[in-house]
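Long-time lurker. I teach an intro course on protein structure, and each term I like to show students one example going from raw sequence to a predicted 3D structure in token notation. This year I'd like something fresh instead of my usual example. Would anyone be willing to generate the tokens for the chain below so I can use it in lecture? Attribution to the forum is fine with me.
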Amino acid sequence: MHLLPAPIFRMTADLQARRRLGLTATLVREDGRESDVFSLIGPKRYDAPWKEIEAQGYIAPADCVEVRVAQSDSERMAYATAEPDERYRLAACAPVKDGVVEQLVARHRGAQTLVIGQYLDQLETLAGRLNAPLITGATSVRERQRLFEEFRTGALSLLVVSKVANFSIDLPEASVAIQVSGTFGSRQEEAQRLGRLLRPKHDGGTAHFYSIVTRDTVDADMAAHRQRFLAEQGYAYRIVDAGDLAPAPPAEGA
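-- Reply from a regular --
Happy to contribute to a lecture. Here you go:
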């Protein structure tokens, strides 16, 4: 329902129907047109805060962490002299994030983990470093289905995914997401990515959502905006410096 105000989708509201029902967990848009939904399908009937649903056991509890990294001197110089429309990409794709991703993956070794980002070259680098499959818009439907099924069954425990995994994917046992970059300040995308983890776990465990952010850049400004919807739902982000992350436990047999 959050897509309905977009020109390509709003025409569906003109289809003949005796009743219309829209369901969404993220009724938020950066163009401010959320209210258009109600003129297209009718008034809001019910709204349940996420934390209330969590307390009732319908979704898993989640630990949200913002991990802050710093650019090198040369990267700061490149960032400072870049054109404004290039600065977000430079900050979001800071190479220092790659090592932090590896550290977090090792920390949650064995957990069903998604590494999520916006920029394909960044994701390709990470997939290579992690020796993990990569799913993007160019991945065939058959291959996506195969990889998602292997992830569901536990045959795969790690996937690197682009924005194609933002919604309409059922991965019940996904318990860790590591976000390296996103679509600028999209609150909806932030909530959708956390939502990939919130199916209740068979062991009752907590989901872990990490957002790796380059400090003192537009990446940090966008992250603050992205987090607003989840903050309104009662989620708080713990802020951790990358240098203060606890080391990963040793692998079994090491």
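Some talking points for your students: DSSP finds eleven helices and seven strands in the chain. The chain has two domains: 7-47, 59-244.
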